[in-house]
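Quick one, tokens below. Sequence please?
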């Protein structure tokens, strides 16, 4: 199961500002004696999801990995604290916002252009410091016993209508919801985002701990619809033995802020003790082995062309979320968290 991100994001952003103000830590990388043999990966991606892929990498390449799992925001904060003394070679994050914080602090090196070119431009940083490995689309998951897709609004703004009062489930402390709000700020401004949050709150949505809980509540009929990432329908279904559940995904219209497609991705630390091993790892994730694994063994979207997801999804090239640079989510996250606090969501 994916866990919710703990709300250490405010601390992460404050720390990022402090690091930026100081110009970062220019110290040398860690001189740990094992760095030549292993690649140290700080992974915000959970072991249940990518553990087999990392084992496959070790088998295929003969390169050992020292993987340190944790929450993406907390690992980013750790990297900021460690600065040039970090033992990490690679930061493997579940979201672009955490990658953006490290990039803005100047702690990533530039990834080779041939690797960047494998991935659609919307799933990599404009300065080439991080690259996406998979995509996750925001959707409305709805109970198929109570609703048909034609009942759902084309825009996430539709859920501010009084007809949806008491009928929506959300996970406001989850990083994906917070990233959605950050994306709305980037595409529509703080004023419109505040208006949306206030109107949505007036409709009495039910708060849940995480996206999995929202999806389970929808499938059980507790609420008819919820805002989640697209893969939770299949994740909950698999956890319950594989039998179909009473839930389907609804994708919003092109350009809608409710249809944000975020990216999990990787960056190589500028002070990586094993820079060559780190490059090999990033090459593997964005190349045929990694993208095949994403396509066949997860419910997320591969971000390199030519790979088809394992389940029936709206093709990624047909999903057009808000027109924003995912790298900008790092800057918008702080005002997003402020708005969420001021409007009573966190």
């Amino acid at each position: 199961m994916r866990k919710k991100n703990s709300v250490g994001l405010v601390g992460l952003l404050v720390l990022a500002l402090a690091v930026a103000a100081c110009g970062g830590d220019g110290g040398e990388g860690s001189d740990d004696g094992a760095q030549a043999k292993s690649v140290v990966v700080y992974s915000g991606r959970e072991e249940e999801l990518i553990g087999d892929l990392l084992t496959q990498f070790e088998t295929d390449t003969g390169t050992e990995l020292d993987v340190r799992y944790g929450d993406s925001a907390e690992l980013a904060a750790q990297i900021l604290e460690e600065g040039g003394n970090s033992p990490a070679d690679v930061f493997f994050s579940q979201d672009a916002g955490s990658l953006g914080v490290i990039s803005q602090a100047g702690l990533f090196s530039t990834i080779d252009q041939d690797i960047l070119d494998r991935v659609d431009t919307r799933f990599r940083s404009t300065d080439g410091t991080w690259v996406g490995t998979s995509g996750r689309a925001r959707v409305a998951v709805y109970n198929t016993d109570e609703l048909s897709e034609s009942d759902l609004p084309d825009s996430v703004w539709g859920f501010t209508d009084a007809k949806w009062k008491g009928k929506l489930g959300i996970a406001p402390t989850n990083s994906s919801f917070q990233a959605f709000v950050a994306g709305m700020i980037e595409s529509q401004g703080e004023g419109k985002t505040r208006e949306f949050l206030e109107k949505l709150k007036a409709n009495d949505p039910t708060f849940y701990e995480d996206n999995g809980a929202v999806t389970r509540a929808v499938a059980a009929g507790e609420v008819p619809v919820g805002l989640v990432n697209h893969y939770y329908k299949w994740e909950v279904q698999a956890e319950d033995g594989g039998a179909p559940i009473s839930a389907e995904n609804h994708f919003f219209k092109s350009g809608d802020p409710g249809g944000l497609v975020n990216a999990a991705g990787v960056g190589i630390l500028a002070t990586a003790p094993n820079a060559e091993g780190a490059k090999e790892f990033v090459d593997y994730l964005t190349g045929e082995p990694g993208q095949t694994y994403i396509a066949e063994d997860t419910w997320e979207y591969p971000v390199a062309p030519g790979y088809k997801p394992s389940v029936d999804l709206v093709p990624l090239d047909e999903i057009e979320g808000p027109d924003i640079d995912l790298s900008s989510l790092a800057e918008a996250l702080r005002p997003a968290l402020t708005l969420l606090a001021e409007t009573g969501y966190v």
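The first strand starts at residue 38 and ends at 43. The beta strands are 38-43, 64-69, 90-93, 131-143, 168-170, 206-207, 225-229, 247-250, 261-268, 301-302.
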